[in-house]
Amino acid sequence: ERSLDELAEQLDPALFYRANRQFLVSRKAIREIEYYFNGRLVVKLHPSPEEKVIISKARASHFKEWMNKEW
User: Fold this and answer.
1) Are 24 and 7 in contact (CB under 8 A)?
2) Angle 44-50-19 (CA atoms, 0-180°, nearest 5)?
3) Peptide bond before residue 13 is cis, with ω within 30 degrees of 0
4) What pairs with residue 63 in β-bridges?
5) Which of 25, 31, 28 has the alpha carbon at shortest distance from 63?
């Protein structure tokens, strides 16, 4: 019943990242990150969703910082 924005506000930002409009990803679920077209990233998860999880070019550097951050 909640929107992803509402859910994201309740989750620990060290453990979950708002990848795009469709996905919140758990740090523990991330298996691989690959470069995609035009500076975007594709995130491979386990379990794997049917759709690709794409990080936009605008958010790619923020996502990389989040991944490398020591919480």
Assistant:
1) yes
2) 50
3) no
4) none
5) 25
pLDDT tens digit string along 1-55? 689 999 999 999 999 999 999 999 999 999 999 999 999 999 999 999 999 999 9
Cα torsion through 38, 44, 49, 50, rounded to 10: 50
DSSP symbol at 50:
S
CA angle 42, 48, 54 (to 5 degrees): 20
Q: What is the pTM of this model?
A: 0.90
User: CA-CA distance, 24 to 42, in Å (whole number)?
Assistant: 14
